[in-house]
Amino acid sequence: MLLSRLLALCRREMARVPDAAPGEAEHLVSAVTGIPRPRLFLFGDRDTGDAERLLASLIDRRAAGEPLQYVLGRWDFYGREFRLSRDTLIPRPETEGLVERALSVLRRRGTERTLALDVGTGSGAIAVTLAAEASGARVVATDVSSGALRTARGNAERHGVSPRVSFVLCDAYSALKCGDRFDVVVSNPPYVAEGEWPSLPPAVRGHEPPAALLAGPDGLSVLRRLVFGAEGLIAPGGELWCEIGASQGAVASKLVSGRLRFLGVFPDLAGRDRYAGWKKP
What we know:
The protein has helices spanning about 5-15, 25-35, 50-65, 70, 95-110, 125-135, 145-160, 200-205, 220-230, 250; strands at about 75, 80-85, 115-120, 135-145, 165-170, 180-185, 235-245, 260-265, 275-280. It has about 280 residues and is of the alpha/beta class.
């Protein structure tokens, strides 16, 4: 089948998928043909061989409610492609704002010999991006899921930063010794309250790992652990930055531990409370 016909077929089929977003057909056709999406229109007369059969299986998965990102097995974050697995959350655009804040800390601290900690690394999107964007930084990335760490290691290798990223299997800080050594601690922790679970989209409830989303009755159990355990890990002048739920800003502002100074709650590009920061004097 010619590429132009394959793309037209995919568009017709995806039009029947209720939650499909514009452009998903191009993502799927690119995945089965290996032709980058921006170049699909240049090769309309190319024969695609047996790509139609593979495409049909991907469309079936998408029509059954599986998110596009898991169907593809990868997604873009901060200008890089990250492989995904069922052990990892889908990287989301708002988390790029969290990375910006962590990078700002590293750049202020100097370009050489800085050390960052990414708690709950998942696919490694944050840790790998920090290492790639701050060339002198070393990063420690933790996760409670061994499957997530396998995926994250692969992404670190794929983007050429594995020598500067160390992966640790542990829950939050449990395997880390205190020592005032991290210039920045960053985390996109679970922050969905148990009562909010039924209201999440079916695609999230049915496919993303619950352990990476749920955080107790109020959604703040992990954030509290991060704040209360951070003082002994952060170097003087270092900072802790966490992503939070849009309704959690007021509670996050009341979390105080030892000498950590609360920096504030800051919005994402949609204007919703999304990032909370603390600093060690």
